[in-house]
Amino acid sequence: MKRDKLRKAYVPMTETAFYILLSLLEPRHGYGIMKHVEELTKGRIQLGSGTVYGTLTKMQRDELIHVYSTKERKKMYQITVDGQHILKIEMHRLSELHSNAMKYGGDLL
Amino acid sequence: MIGFFRPFWSYNILAMESWLKTMSEQGFQLADFNSRTRRFYFVKAFHSQPSMYRISYAKQNVLPPALIKDGWQKVVHKGKWHILQHEQSNEIATYPEREGVIRRNKRLMYLFTTLLIYFSFALLPLVFMFMLFIATGEFNVSIVGNPFAVIIGMMVPVLLSVYACYSLVKLNKANKQLLFGKEKGIYKWRRKSYKKQANFSRGKLAWKYAPDRLEAWLENMALAGNELIAVSRFGARFYFRRTKPKHIRYCVDYQNHLDDAYFDLHRQAGWTLLYSQTGFLDKWSIWAKVYEQGEAVPQLYYDEGHKLKHARRVTMTHLAFLIPAILVYVYIFRDFALYNGDTFKLLVFGIIIIQFTAFFIQSSLYYKRMKKKVERY
Question: InterPro entries of this UniProt entry (chain B) (predicted)?
Answer without folding.
Answer: DUF2812
